[in-house]
Design brief:
Helix 2 crosses helix 3. A hairpin with a 4-residue loop joins strand 1 and strand 2. The protein contains 4 helices and 5 strands. It has one domain. The protein has a 5-stranded antiparallel β-sheet with strand order 2-1-3-4-5, covered by helices on one side. Helix content is 33%, strand content 13%. With 205 residues, the protein is α+β, with helices and mostly antiparallel strands.
């Protein structure tokens, strides 16, 4: 009996299968994690590129905050040629409003959907791209735009307020490959992404 037991302990048959049973699940898990990480990184990068593109479009488009178009900065002791006084206009795509003045829906559409304002998100010519053409899960509900005093611009020259434009994308959800069912809610939302650019050549019309 003892000899049989010792012989059993020394037997090598089946060792490869046993090792494979331990190694293969580890390989599968690591492969899945690599795929998930790459796809999440791709989505985050898509949001960043969309915000940057939106800022560039906003810098050469009608401002969403209509009050910015006719702003002179004059009054309350500010005279023509003086530095532009501080200002900040926050416009929310989801609320379709700005903290001051009116909200220009057409201007927001031009930024989100492209200068053609086709209200569709698809691959298109570079000159026609909007934010959602760069990253198709972006909608105006995810976009906030801030126009604020940049330190440039002179009072009394409304065509050239030279604002600093900041485009923020928020409340986008990661599209996980494997983790949708088990990922905590806090990990399913893409962190807010912002991009800023000088808007020294805003167009009216």
């Amino acid at each position: 009996m003892i000899r049989k037991f010792i012989s059993y302990l020394r037997a090598k048959s089946g060792s490869v299968s046993t090792e494979a049973a331990f190694v293969i699940p580890v390989i599968v898990i690591l492969t899945g994690c690599a795929i998930e990480f790459c796809y999440v990184t791709y989505q985050w990068n898509g949001a960043i590129q969309s915000a940057r593109h939106g800022a560039r479009v906003a810098a050469t488009s009608n401002p969403v905050a209509t009050q910015l178009r006719d702003m002179t900065g004059l009054g309350q002791g500010v005279e023509a040629g003086d530095p532009m006084p501080d200002y900040s206009y926050d416009c929310s795509g989801s609320a379709q409003s700005c903290n001051q003045g009116s909200f220009d829906q057409a201007a927001m559409n031009a930024i989100v959907y492209g200068p053609d304002q086709d209200l569709t998100c698809a691959s298109t010519a570079r000159a026609r791209r909007g934010m959602c053409d760069v990253f198709d899960i972006v909608s105006e509900d995810n976009v906030d735009i801030n126009y604020s005093h940049s330190g440039f611009g002179r009072a009394g020259f409304p065509p050239d307020p030279a604002p600093l434009i900041t485009v923020t994308i928020r409340d986008l959800k990661f599209d996980f490959v494997f983790l949708d069912a088990i990922a905590p809610a806090g990990l399913k939302t893409i962190p807010p992404v912002t991009a800023s650019i000088m808007g020294g050549d805003l167009r009216n019309g």
